[in-house]
Amino acid sequence: MKRVTQKDTNPFPHSDSNKRYYTYDYYLRTTYGGKCAKVTLDGGFTCPNIDGTKGKGGCIYCSARGSGDFSPAPTLSLAEQYALQTARIREKWETPRFIPYLQAHTNTYAPIERLRAVYAQALALPGAVALHIATRADCLPEDVLSLLRELSEQIPLTVELGLQSTSEKTARRILRGHTYAEFLDGYHRLRERVPRARVSIHLINGLPEESREDMLKTVTDVARLFPDEVKLHLLHVLKGTPLAVLYERGDYVPLTLEEYADTVVSQLRLLPPDVVIGRLTGDGAAEDLLAPAWSLKKLTVINEIDKRMANGGFSQGDLCKLHKK
């Protein structure tokens, strides 16, 4: 008799595995007809939280590469970066489908002519089936929104917005440089002006002085927005950051694996079931990571979350009572 597996008993509709949440991999395979690979690129942009417009030095956890630690150097052209990255990817698996991902810093923060030129280069990359652009909600002026609308009519577009937390106290503590009200203004204008774009919201668990209740409130607030995608990150302590100073003098204690897994499971249950989960934990370059060490074992983290979802009989959205209008 065939052994009954978690996959066989999984009630979650947006899954063909044991995952009881809407994984990004499942979204890509069902949308594009097969495996897709995301290709991180550095367009050489800066950030208003670095150049003095909103602040200097970035958020307290940001590395010098501004989340672009796994991208090639911005001194290389996008085509050169893309060739290097896709060659590495093909060493792991073969796929003709790639998604260029402008990840480092704020990729809508530049004169419109430069943005247009960089986006055109990304569009021309061979095998690109979509494009992802990471930015801030306070960096979406009208001319940029018009350009993003043009872009969304040429290729499937996802705009990724860094929020991290809806708490104003936390925003000030991490030196984010804009309020939640400003985030909401940018989010709604993006939705209205670029209706064909998918919108992804980045959140970070374990920010300084945040409680489990704070993290769950953030997800509850974000769920009301019905984004297309949510990325859940673990806060990493990286060398050379203001957060590292707090950690080294004992003023910041990272989450344990158990605390993180428990929080993520609760967050998944609060998110609408048709929101794609772009990520369950973040990456930190091993040579720069101070803590938590357990985060280097990414599969262990994901397996712990999957185990808790299955053992509890939980699914994404089973505690969500929200309905789109």
N-end to C-end Cα span: 47 Å
Number of separate structural domains: 1
Architecture per CATH nomenclature, i.e. the level-2 architecture: Alpha-Beta Barrel
| DSSP E strands, number | 9
**What is the residue-mean pLDDT, rounded to a whole number?**
93
Count of alpha/pi helices: 10
* Residue share in β-strands: 5-15%
Spans with pLDDT under 50 lasting ≥5 residues? none
Strand order of the largest sheet: 1-2-3-4-5-6-8
Report on the biggest sheet.
7 strands, parallel
Keywords:
single chain, 325 residues, 7-stranded parallel β-sheet, 9 strands, 10 helices, TIM Barrel
Your description of this structure?
With 325 residues, the chain is of the alpha/beta class. The chain has a seven-stranded parallel sheet. Helix 2 links the parallel strand 1 and strand 2. It is globular and about 55 Å long. The relative contact order is 0.13. The model has no long low-confidence stretch (mean pLDDT 93).
Short structural summary:
With 325 residues, this protein is an alpha/beta fold. It has ten helices and nine strands. It has a single domain, classed as TIM Barrel (Alpha-Beta Barrel), CATH 3.20.20.70.
